[in-house]
Amino acid sequence: MNAVDEIYAAHSDPEGFAGGYATYLGELLGRLDRNAVAAFMRLVLEVRNRGGRVFFVGNGGSAATASHFANDFSIGTRCAEKPFKAISLTDNVAAMTAIANDEGYDQLFVKQLEVVMEPGDIVVAISASGNSTNVVKALEFAKSRGNKTVALTGFETGGRIAEIADIVIHVKTRRGEYGPVEDVHMFVDHLMGSYFNRVVFEERAAGHFIEAHKTAVM
Description:
Layout: H1 3-10, H2 14-30, H3 34-49, E1 53-58, H4 61-75, E2 85-88, H5 93-102, H6 110-116, E3 122-126, H7 133-144, E4 148-154, H8 159-164, E5 167-171, H9 178-205, H10 208-217
Parallel strand pairs: 1-2, 1-3, 3-4, 4-5
């Protein structure tokens, strides 16, 4: 029995379950490794400064989280002058189905990275178990090319991706607690997106983009 099962066993009514779930989620957020999150933030800013890209990969709910991260970083920051080049490799249906059909589902992300990843780019794998074969292979491929990697994972150990990645954000829960793990992953997305929005606001207020434009014109 995991924590969510225990909450339901104690509070089978909707109101009680909602309260118990919210309390438990607050506990997980309180245990979040802020140093790991900060390291991820700094890495993304470094990649942005050198014009590199951030690729996100995941399956199921984590595929949606990958898309959400890419949207919040690239579009949500509203900074075309010095963009956050974030891309989710879960969004191209034609490419994904072609690769899954021709090469196998475990090659879903590797085959895309072979085409689009360049030196200096980073790969972020999102997986509650940390053991989805295609995200494991994506990180292994990135590491073999010398690219930095990040893992957002969960459950007891964080799985294989926690062993591979340079930066690990591990939401430690009992096995099967997909909802709470994915909730915290989304919290990290919104935390980072909110921070980057304010970085861009300060840059714009300081005239950084105006000066860059003047230099380009001259």
